[in-house]
Amino acid sequence: MYKEFNAHPKGIRTGDCVVRAIATAKQIDYLECRRELNRSKRELGYSSYKDTKFLYDYLKDYPRLIFKPVKGEPRIKGSDFTELHPKGTYVLKMAGHITACVDGVILDTWDCTYRSVYTAWEIAK
Q1: How many structural domains comprise the chain?
Q2: Is the pTM of this model over 0.90?
Q3: What range defines the domain where residue 94 resides?
Q4: What distance lies between CA 68 and its chain's CA centroid?
């Protein structure tokens, strides 16, 4: 369900969840991923790769799962997502956070499995 993992090359715990999640999901070097995100944000006209709208544009070519709220029912949590998707690699947009899920395990610097999942992009099957 959750495993501690930090893609940052120096193991620093910082507010870089977008870079960590995408580098982890795409299995690319952290610094290479940050360069790619910075290049893409300029090309797409955003001031920051942390902008939610940028993330949607950046990942638009990947299959997307949308988890709409249902009145009277709790939203799907990260822990629910891991059970529903035991295979595959995903970038999850959660409440105030972005993380990676690989084969049913959320890989992050902290346990965010209690957070609501709004959408997920399938990076690999």
Answers
A1: 1
A2: yes
A3: 2-124
A4: 17
